[in-house]
Amino acid sequence: MQKRELYKLENSKIVRERRSCPRCGTGVFLAEHENRLTCGKCGYTEFKNKKKN
């Protein structure tokens, strides 16, 4: 993944595209998997909610 994929420019301001890790702080992003968000540095994991149809 390129750094340019983690940020975008909106109205002359830099906006982060991904969530930051709550344990590691800003600058360490959570990787998006199909069913979870994971930090590669500390191993923090959040599971996404499943939709029941």
UniProtKB/TrEMBL annotation:
* Record flagged with keyword Magnesium: no
The answer to keyword Zinc-finger applying to this record is: yes
Name what cofactor the protein needs.
Zn(2+)
Q: Which SMART domains match?
A: Ribosomal_S27
Q: Which family does it belong to?
A: Belongs to the eukaryotic ribosomal protein eS31 family.
What GO molecular function terms would the record report? structural constituent of ribosome; zinc ion binding
Q: What is this protein called?
A: Small ribosomal subunit protein eS31
> What quaternary arrangement does the UniProt entry report?
Part of the 30S ribosomal subunit.
Entry keywords, A to Z = Metal-binding, Ribonucleoprotein, Ribosomal protein, Zinc, Zinc-finger
Q: What's noted on cofactor binding?
A: Binds 1 zinc ion per subunit.
List, alphabetically, the HAMAP family matched: Ribosomal_eS31
Q: One Pfam family, short name please?
A: Ribosomal_S27
**UniProt domain Small ribosomal subunit protein eS31: residue ranges:** 3-45
GO biological-process terms attached to the record: translation
Gene that this sequence comes from = rps27ae
Can you quote a single GO CC term? ribosome
